[in-house]
Amino acid sequence: MHRLLSTVLYLFLSSALFLSFSYDTRAATITVTTASDVLATDGLCSLREAITRANTDPVGLIVLGECILGSGDDLIVFDPSLNGVPIELSIPGIGDDDNLTGDLDIFSNIMIMGNGVDNTVIDANSIERVFQIIGSTPMVSMSQLTITGGLLVDTIGAGISNGGTLLLDNVSIHTNVVLGTTSSAIGGGIFNSGTVAIIESTIDNNTADRGSGIFSNNTLEIFQSTVSNNIGRTGVGIMNFGGLGIFNSTISNNAATGNTGGIDNSTGGIMVITNSTIVENGAQGILSSAPGDLTISNSIVANNSGLNCSGSGANIVSQGNNLDSDGSCGFVQAGDISNTDPMIGPLADNGGPTHSHALLSGSPAVDAGNNATCENEGQRATLRPQDGDDNGAAVCDMAALEMLLSELITQGPTSSDGGGGCSMASVNNSSTAFPLYLLIPALILFRRLRRKQK
Ligand SMILES: [Ca+2]
Ligand SMILES: [Ca+2]
Ligand SMILES: [Ca+2]
Ligand SMILES: [Ca+2]
Hints:
Blueprint: H1 2-23, E1 29-32, H2 47-56, E2 74-78, E3 87-88, E4 104-106, E5 110-113, E6 121-123, E7 131-133, E8 139-148, E9 151-153, E10 160-162, E11 165-174, E12 177-179, E13 190-192, E14 195-199, E15 202-204, E16 214-216, E17 219-223, E18 226-228, E19 231-232, E20 238-240, E21 243-247, E22 250-252, E23 255-256, E24 260-265, E25 270-274, E26 277-279, E27 284-288, E28 294-297, E29 300-302, E30 309-310, E31 316-318, E32 323-324, E33 344-348, E34 356-359, H3 405-411, H4 436-453
Parallel strand pairs: 1-2, 2-5, 3-6, 4-7, 5-8, 6-8, 7-10, 8-11, 9-12, 10-13, 11-14, 11-15, 13-16, 14-17, 15-18, 16-20, 17-21, 18-22, 19-23, 20-24, 21-25, 22-26, 24-27, 25-28, 26-29, 27-30, 28-31, 29-32
Antiparallel strand pairs: 33-34
The structure holds calcium ion (4 copies).
């Protein structure tokens, strides 16, 4: 059921965003041609100028060489000559919401498509946050880019502050900082008060008092993504007060000075976790504060430095086929495995666009999920189920990844100390496993670009 709900939400988001772009024949494609953060008639188009043109759809003559005029739901792209050159924000002045100084302010429907997380890096250079999506009406998508260098003091959302509808697809949000300890020192990577869908993205090494990776008080869905190495007091990976779904994702190595490093589902937050790996966080892995508000299936909650779960039984409800390493999660439903070492590798590049934890040969999580409730593909887009224990029956794994039998065989026998010697076979997911929901918007965009060229 939750899989269906998430699919419906995804289709809504992707169709609302991408189809509106594809059928908005007025839309302009605005190409950024300089990495400098300037507002000037200099023959070049900066990212700030491009966003202003897209926001305001001005009319009039196009100045030769400047950004072309926005028109409807615009697409912003980056000239390949900028690949690898960081776009550093440099016009000081915090608190401006007119896209003139400090952060980049978006208040219309805009699609920003970079050339890859290594090629298109948008760095606030510590002058304010990176992006602010203002009001509840903008529909925005960002893909193939990095968002970093945001710095705020006791203010929300250093990477992105979102009030509208936002799709993040193949995005890296790292090293954004909210200083301070007030109730506003939240959302180091992302602050969300609207709707956000995160696909195949990484939220890493962001800092805030609470919700250092992500703070959400509205609707958030996370697919095939990793929230890792964030730093804060509590609710460090994710702090949730709204509706949250986590699918095929990894929450790992978030460091807490307070009581919860992984996920804090506060009173009023409603949360579903399936096929995910919540491990190696500081302090507690998951805290859920009210009865029935968090349901979990086909997942691993293990090796967190405090309790894996706080609020088990009433507040954290197992729907089966989960594993914990300390017996704290109350995993007593069908297929649950309690107080058991999951036998996982370190957070590492195991193939696909995000880092993850592999299951090691002999892991009790291999082929221990429920085919009736598991997701159709793993974090790396490996199709589920795979027969990982070579008994002829293909069964979903617990956890974000679905391991291939060839990978588990290549690892060989696992040493009892969990030491090295494990070589992972690379995963080829480029052919059969490419998700249709990414292919469809890509095809729509390609057709639209082709039409424009004619
Ligand atoms: Ca526009
Ligand atoms: Ca602003
Ligand atoms: Ca601004
Ligand atoms: Ca399997």
